[in-house]
Amino acid sequence: MEYLKEIVDYGIIGLLILMSVISLALFLERFFYYRRVDLNSFKSAKLLENDLTRNLTAIATIASNAPYIGLLGTVLAIMQTFIDMSKENMAVTTIMSSLALALKTTAVGLLVAIVAVVFYNYLTRKVETLLAEYEN
User: Are 127 and 56 in contact (CB under 8 A)?
Assistant: First the structure.
């Protein structure tokens, strides 16, 4: 059952890092697109809105799922701690240390989610501003 530790350390944390890189890449792509978009080239507000909101769903999905992925890592790490406790006589300090380290994936998941929510909110506000500018 030692593989649970490997899954948490490499799989879950790796997935969360990948999610953060993807959300940053999508944010930067949208940010630079919004700076250079020509509003007059669109025939309708609906076409403009479709173009402006591209990739925002992916950022929102990352923001909403990162905490759950982090929580999954925490649950797996706690399971590993209980398995280790059942196999050997562990000191209380070792148990507490293992449980504290188990929470790292939840913390990383929350960090990824918070940043992705900030990205999403910024971009959504920018879309609203550009649509209002188009309509006037």
Answer: yes
Burial degree of 94 (CB within 10 A; 0-12, 13-18, 19+): middle
Q: What is the pLDDT of residues 44-81, one digit of tens each?
A: 999 999 999 999 999 999 999 999 999 999 998 888 88
Q: In whole angstroms, how far apart are CA 123 and each of 13, 88, 114, 115?
A: 26, 52, 14, 12
Phi-psi region of 44 (alpha: psi -120 to 50; beta: other; left: phi over 0): beta
Q: What is the pTM of this model?
A: 0.86
d(CA 89, CA 93): 12
Distance from C-alpha of 67 to C-alpha of 60, rounded to nearest angstrom: 12
* 121 Cα distance to chain centroid: 14
CB 69 within 8 A of CB 15: yes
Residue 10 pLDDT? 84
Q: Which amino acid is at 64?
A: S
Q: Identify the pLDDT of residue 81.
A: 84
HSE of 41, CA atoms in CB hemisphere, 13 A: 5
